[in-house]
Amino acid sequence: MYYKEDCTYHIFNRSNETVFYNRENYLFFLKKIREYVLPNANILSYCLMPNHFHLILTVKPEGVINIENEKLEEMQVLSRAIGTTLSSYTQAINKQQGRRGSLFAHKTKAKILNEAKDEYALNCFMYVHQNPILAKLVSKIEDWEFSSFPDYIGARNGTLVNIQLGLAIFQIDKNQLYELTYILMKDKLDEDFI
Fold it and tell me: What does the domain layout of the chain look like in residue ranges?
């Protein structure tokens, strides 16, 4: 994926097996996001699920810089940061679980939201937060600890997500976010979000 400065992307990857085995695994992954991705992007929202993850971010100028990778091919800093996050996490899980090989079954996908039609970008933002309730992991969206939704509604004071930028980009009134998220969940969502 070639990232463009100041553009907004939905980044996701899934596995055919469990990715996060316990609370510490989720927190370790978020620590890696903070360490590698955050210096190169503003995180607007995230949700970690037992077998996949979603990030919505905007790319900082630092993220689009081209660097040479081990194969002497050009690669952007943000692409390397995401790759390093997943590689580092996979190595830790392989050690923890006594397993070998790739943890994620697919290449990480990135869909640009700036070019989306209709309400796709807003629906995508909402869908990321709705994942845990749609998967029946919780009865209320705000009960899922490994999502940025608690930060947006003021139930937690996290520092990973740029809430003000997220509200501005998706043109959401913070006072209406909670209700809007639940209203939009009732609508049928496009399978492209998954």
Answer: 8-193
CA atoms of 36 and 52, how far apart (whole Å): 18
CA distance 170 to 176: 12
* Residue listed under structure tokens 């037992």: 50
pLDDT in tens, 15-31: 989 999 999 999 999 99
| Confidence (pLDDT) at 187 | 57
CA angle centred on 106, ends 24 and 190, rounded to 5°: 95
- Helix (H) / strand (E) element for 94: namely helix 77-97
Q: Can you tell me which residue has the tokens 């943000």?
A: 78
If you average pLDDT over residues 132-144, what whole number do you get?
94
Count CA atoms within 13 Å of residue 106 on its CB side.
13
| Sequence-ordered list of residues with C-beta below 8 angstroms from that of 152, at least 6 positions apart, any chain | 45, 129, 161, 163, 166, 167, 174, 177
> Domain spanning 8-193 has what CATH number?
3.30.70.1290
**CA–centroid distance for 179 within its chain:** 22
